[in-house]
Every structure is written in C-alpha cells, then in structure tokens.
Write a structure and sequence with these properties.
The protein is an alpha+beta fold. The chain has four helices and 14 strands. The protein has helices at 2-41, 52-66, 137-143, 195-204; strands spanning 71-76, 81-86, 89-99, 103-106, 111-114, 120-123, 126-129, 132-134, 155-157, 163-166, 172-174, 185-187, 191-193, 210-213. The strands form three sheets. Strands 1, 2, 3, 6, 7, 10, 11, 12, 13 and 14 form a ten-stranded mixed sheet that branches. Strands 4-5 form a two-stranded antiparallel ribbon. β4 and β5 form a beta hairpin.
Length: 214
C-alpha cells in the first residue's frame, strides 16, 4: 500500500514536470510563431534611392503627354518673350511688351484698373487684319479727357498695328507703334509684338490655337 502511494506520488510529480516542460515549449513556440508572423506582415524594405535617369525619363514621358499638339503660343511676361511652338520645336522667338502692373484710379466714378497681362491658358478667339481699336474708358481717364458722348469717336486705326489676335476680355496680341519699348513691361495688359514677328504668329495661329501665359 505504501509502495503504491509512493508510486502514485512519483507518477503525479512526473506528470506535473512533463506538463510544465510542454507548457514551456508551447509558450516558446507561440512566441516564435508570432515573431515569424510579424516579420511576414512587415513590408519588404524599399530602396530609398531611385535611379535618377529612370526618374528623369518618367518625368519626361509625363510632360510629353501633357504637351499640346500642333502649333501653340507661349508668353513669358517676366522675360517679355513670346515663343511660337509646334510640339517641342520653337518656330519663332519674339521680344514683346506686356502689362506694366500699374494702377489707375478714376476718382469721378470710383473705379480702379490694374494693367496686368492675365496669366493662364487661353486660346485665340479672333483674328483681325488692320484692326480697329475701340478706345476704352481708362484711356480717357489716363489722358485726363472726358468720355466721348458718341461711341463712334472711340474708334482709332493704326494703334494696334497690322494684325491682332484676341484671346478674351479685351486682351490682344497685336502690333505697336512703340517698338523702342519692346522688351519692357509697359502695356495696359495686351501683348505688343514687332511687325515681322507678329505677321509670322498671325499666319501660323488659327482660331482655337492655345496661348500659355505666365
């Protein structure tokens, strides 16, 4: 009887020891498995350095897709340059005059004009040979003259040169009598171009031709 009790005690002790060992192994395996899962869940390391040549090619491809097709006009108002382009090719480069940025106030009617060339994407909306200038209110205010009672008195020829390309809101690419001022920001918002350059632009552009001004 005593022997049996001792055997049972020994057997119980061995069982407890085996349970502890297996439990320990189970915990270790669980931690090992979790560690493996965590490693698998982490994204693979990325190379922070990209091939600059490959990146440059990708950017060029994107820009090529964005570039307009056919003939278009680019105007740089800071450098006072106009570029007639077809795709990447520059067909003609011209020295121009663009908006002065000056402010004119009409104290009588409480009006203000800012003489800037608009920036953005536009298109040719009209083409005129020997264009007529309809003198606006600001021209009379600037000269200190009263506004005409008859609108026919506003019409003047020869002021805009031989050609004019309208791109909306009274703005034009046109000729100039003041060629000595080309290359300067002196206009009331329109883009003045010399005679030979204007003729080339007028001949190449058509209604709908894009104009990019910055």
């Amino acid at each position: 009887m005593v022997v049996l009790k001792r055997s049972l005690i020994i057997l119980a002790g061995l069982s407890l020891l085996l349970f502890i060992v297996l439990e320990g192994l189970g915990i270790y395996y669980g931690k090992y498995a979790m560690a493996r899962v965590s490693e698998q869940d982490e994204p693979p390391p990325q190379n922070a350095k990209q091939d600059p040549e490959k990146l440059s090619q990708q950017l060029r491809q994107k820009l090529d897709k964005m570039a307009p097709a056919g003939v278009y006009i680019v105007v740089d108002t800071a450098a006072n340059r106009l570029y007639l382009k077809n795709g990447d090719k520059v067909l003609r480069e011209a020295v121009i005059s663009s908006g002065s940025g000056k402010v004119l106030e009409d104290n009588v009617k409480d009006r203000t004009w800012v003489f800037d060339t608009p920036r953005g994407v536009f298109s040719v909306k009209s083409k005129q040979k020997d264009p007529m200038w309809v003198k606006p209110d600001w021209a009379y205010v600037e000269e200190g003259e009263p506004l005409p009672k008859n609108n026919k008195d506003r019409f003047e020829r020869g002021v805009l040169g031989d050609y004019a390309l309208g791109f909306g809101n009274g703005f034009f690419i046109h000729g100039t009598l003041y060629t000595r001022l080309l290359g300067r920001n002196v206009t009331h918002g329109c883009i003045r171009v010399g005679d030979a350059d204007l003729e080339a632009v007028f001949a190449a552009a058509s209604i709908g031709t894009k104009i990019y001004i910055f």
